[in-house]
Write a structure and sequence with these properties.
By secondary structure, the chain is of the alpha+beta class. The chain has helices at residues 24-35, 113-118; strands at 2-9, 12-19, 42-46, 49-50, 73-79. Helix content is 15%, strand content 25%. The chain is globular and about 60 Å long.
Length: 119
Amino acid sequence: MDVFLMIRRHKTTIFTDAKESTTVYELKRIVEGILKRAPEDQRLYKDDQSLEDGKTLGDCGFTNQTARPQAPATVGLAFRVNDDVFEQLHVEAFSSPPELPDVMKPQDSGNTANEQAVQ
């Protein structure tokens, strides 16, 4: 079955889908194709826990019930800084949209002048 994922690092978000049988390493290869960073220089996380390359996404708890198109599962991404050290996992919160201008807000009154003119 397909699982839908949101891979996040800092302000970058990648939306992708994969099979439950896809390994973590294969997911890193997908990221490599987009961000041009080798799988060995990536570390993927679920809930602050590092994911092992040999495990499948299903083994890691990503199922078609937990990673749906309407609500993709979040996977954290960190890159290698030097030989032995990976950066801290850091994901920026999504920004809030600005408030709608008054002209775009729904009107509560019954008939407006524009609606009466159309009738």
